[in-house]
Amino acid sequence: MKRLSLLLLPVAAILAQAPNAYVGSQACAACHPAIFATWKKTRMANVIQDPKIHPEAIIGDFSKPDPLVTFKKEDIAFTYGGKWKQRYFTRIGDDYFVLPAQWDAVNAVWRPYYVKAGTDWWTAHYPAEQMQRPTGPLCDGCHSVNYNIATKQVTEWNVGCEKCHGPGAAHVKQPSKADIVNPARLDFARANDVCIQCHSQGRPKSNPVAGKYYDWPIGYVPGGRLSDVWNLEEHRLGETTFTHYPDGSAHKNRMQGNDFVTSRMHQRGVTCFSCHNVHGTQNNADVIKPGNAMCLECHGPQSPNGPRGTLEEHTHHAADSAGSQCTACHMPKIAQTIADVNVRTHTFRFVTPAASETYKIPNACVLCHKEKTNAWAGQQLQSWTNFSRWRMAQ
Question: How far apart are CA 224 and CA 133, in angstroms?
């Protein structure tokens, strides 16, 4: 089995590669040591771990029996994730498969892992048995660099440099801005595609490929247009589905891209990396600045983007309270990742209590004021004279 450590290609071997060849993240370290050092500590660089190399990567509690856990640590070839949940891959032949129990890292309990029929679109094309649903076509294209669907080999596991910057052989041979993709130099749509390739729910435009159905954008290379090879999951307004709420916002995790492309932020040319630095920061989710400082870069009393007035006038909460956190109202945690653990929406739309009543979409008011009702929240908003009553009634 190929080790998870970064490929250490000799310089001569790199220089002999074809210009469009992938060389692995280690090849970038010599010229970009600071970026490489911070990236290596990110979740992007460590989403997949080999417990034989990193036994500490397993965070699930195997110290006592649990009926859901029908496997042993020795059966685990890879761990996946760890922030909200951790799943476990085993290897059978030249494929990997997700084992049937996952660790809920927030609640510290075991939960079953199984994708039910009629949820993800691909369940109609795979057997019901868990060990007949390989991760290669269903997962690995996003958890690796340059996954080869013919050989099932990768240049590198995890989200390496070339996942976002494209193949690097030409750049290593003769470094130039012209022979590497820098998302910051792309138009905003293609720049966002670099992130949306994995942070979205969809399906390839050409499916099946060689008789298999893939759940990641085969053929996409940074700098290209994701829409040429990938369709975002469709949704009908008014319907609640596995993927969407009735208003079209994400019902589940890994749909930040689906949300974002519907937002005014995306329409105005904002990019994912306007807020996030995937090379690593000290802040949660690798945002560039913590808390409101990130949002107030572009929004504030003196900005045409608003909001008008002071923070307290806008939120009707004390400045240092949870209710005055921009993300509390404009990015509430409503997209499910496991059980009762949710992640933040990326539409940046404020969902009114009236909309919650009509469409059964969670809203920020009663997510925080859990003991209150939508009716109460609606009455409070109607009393806020600096907001449109017409808007709050919808």
Answer: 30
Residue 330 lies in a domain: no
Distance set, CA 159 to CA 46, 152, 194, 322 (Å): 8, 17, 12, 33
Q: Is 231 a domain residue?
A: no
SS3 311: helix
Contact 251, 261 (CB under 8 A): no
Q: Is residue 78 part of a domain?
A: yes
Question: What one-character DSSP code corresponds to residue 140?
Answer: I
Backbone angles phi, psi at 266, to 5 degrees: -65, -40
Q: What angle do CA 88, 91, 92 make, to 5 degrees?
A: 135
The answer, yes or no, to whether residue 326 has pLDDT greater than 90, is: yes
Average pLDDT value for the chain: 94
Write the CA distances from 303 to 147, 224, 263, integer angstroms: 45, 34, 19
Among 162, 278, 261, residue whose Cα is nearest residue 221: 162
Percent of the chain with pLDDT over 70: 95
**Number of CB atoms found within 10 A of residue 356's CB:** 19
Residue 30 sits in which domain range?
11-183+210-225
What's the alpha-carbon Rg for the chain, to the nearest Å?
22
Paired sense of beta strands 202-204 and 230-232, if any: antiparallel
244-271 pLDDT per residue, tens? 999 999 999 999 999 999 999 999 999 9
Q: For residue 290, what are its two tokens?
A: 């913590």
Task: List Cα–Cα distances, 227 to 97, 118, 187, 223, in angstroms.
Answer: 29, 25, 14, 12
Give the DSSP letter of residue 108: T
pTM tops 0.90, yes or no: yes
Residue 98 falls inside a structural domain: yes
Q: What is the total count of domains within the chain?
A: 1
Tokens of 62: 């195997």
